[in-house]
Amino acid sequence: MLQYLGLRRVTVLGHSLGGVNACQLAAWLPGLVDALIVEDIGAVVDGDVSFSLAWPQRALTRAGLLEGLGTSARYLLGAVREYPDGWGLAFDP
Question: Which residue, 49, 47, 20, 48, is CA-closest to 36?
Answer without folding.
Answer: 20
